Amino acid sequence: MRKKIVAGNWKMNLTLAQGEQLINDILAAGLKLEEGQEVVVATPFPYLTKAKSLLQHHPGFYLAAQNCYSEKSGAFTGEVSAEMLKSVGVDYVILGHSERREYFKESNEALAKKVDLVLANGLKPIFCCGEPLEVRQAETQNEYVAKQLEESLYHLTAEQLKDVVIAYEPIWAIGTGLTASAQQAQDMHAFIRAQIAGKYGREAALGLSILYGGSAKPSNAKELFSSPDVDGGLIGGASLVAADFAAIVKSF
């Protein structure tokens, strides 16, 4: 049975004190996770160690970093390696988020290198994929996402793929006022799973967790999560409000 995951991506928000309070409020929300359900918190780099200390004694709660660099080590001022993240107790690393692709021009080739480094250090990548508005309007979203998967993930073995989580982000529905329907989310998730099945086989595809990253919130989480191929969410803004994030987790 594949994992059901709600991951909160704080992005570049909150002070350390605010982040500590947010985690404590989430932990105090009385969330009862069943077997196979996980909550992941992705904090900014400076807060990882503190967040780990707060989460580590709570079963089902895991820590994520929001990115890592595409080289193992070296003279790359300001960057953070997968090995460094491993050393402070990180469990997951978000890779290829739409903001990283758009603002920092991360390529599929660079992301393939990041995936390799994350896996080599025993961490699990949350690999983001998804199409911008012009691609959706042209109705070529399937081809667009298939290329992202092929160029960043298809060099992996089936065994390596077991540690990968995919997050589908309909970029056109994030902060634009447009909304992706549960059916649109399900259609793309089913497409991604079919692509994985075509490359790695049906068993591998059925074991892969695919999260929805399109502005999930308490009001639509239950409908989204009830879709057969939607295994949870990568949550942005709603992850900064403990009550909202807890409500999304409870939507399982």
Shape field: globular
Order of helices and strands: EHEHEHEHHEHHHEHHEHEH
Total separate domains: 1
User: What is the percentage of strand-forming residues?
Assistant: 15-25%
How is the main sheet built?
8 strands, parallel
CATH H-level homologous superfamily name: Aldolase class I
Gap from first CA to last CA: 15 Å
Sheet with the most strands: spatial strand order:
7-6-5-4-3-2-1-8
The helix count comes to 12
**Stretches where pLDDT falls below 50 for ≥5 residues?**
none
The helix content, as a percent range, equals: 40-55%
Oligomeric organization of the protein chains: single chain
CATH architecture verdict: Alpha-Beta Barrel
What is the structural class? alpha/beta
- CATH topology type: TIM Barrel
Number of strand segments: 8
CATH top level?
A: Alpha Beta
Name the average pLDDT.
96
Q: Specify Rg, calculated over alpha carbons.
A: 17 Å
Active site: 97, 169
Enzyme class: isomerase
Function: Involved in the gluconeogenesis. Catalyzes stereospecifically the conversion of dihydroxyacetone phosphate (DHAP) to D-glyceraldehyde-3-phosphate (G3P).
Keywords: Cytoplasm, Gluconeogenesis, Glycolysis, Isomerase
Write a brief caption for the model.
This protein is 43% helix and 15% strand. The protein has helices at 16-27, 48-55, 82-87, 98-104, 108-120, 133-137, 141-153, 158-161, 182-200, 202-206, 218-225, 242-250, and strands at 4-9, 37-42, 61-65, 92-95, 124-129, 165-168, 210-212, 232-235.
